[in-house]
Fold this protein.
Amino acid sequence: MPNLADHVRNPGFTEFTNPLPVGAFRFLAAPMFHRRERVGHVFVGDKDRGAEFTVADEETLTMFAAQAAPVIANAGCWAMRRLVA
C-alpha cells in the first residue's frame, strides 16, 4: 500500500482499531490464519529511504505470517490450559 493515509482499511483487517502510527507512509500487512481462524495480523511500515514495497517483500511477509500463526495459536492454547489447570 503506497500511502496509508489514503487507504486506512483493507479487506481482512476490519477489526483493526488501534491508532495508526504517525508518520508511516508505506504500509504492508498480512493476516495470520491458523486452521481457517484469524489469530492476528503482522504489519510493516516505512521501508528504508521511503522505497515502495516489492512483490518479494509481500511474499516474505505472507510467509512469515503463515509460519507465525501456528506459534501464536499454540501459545494461546497453552495459556488457556494453564487457566483451566
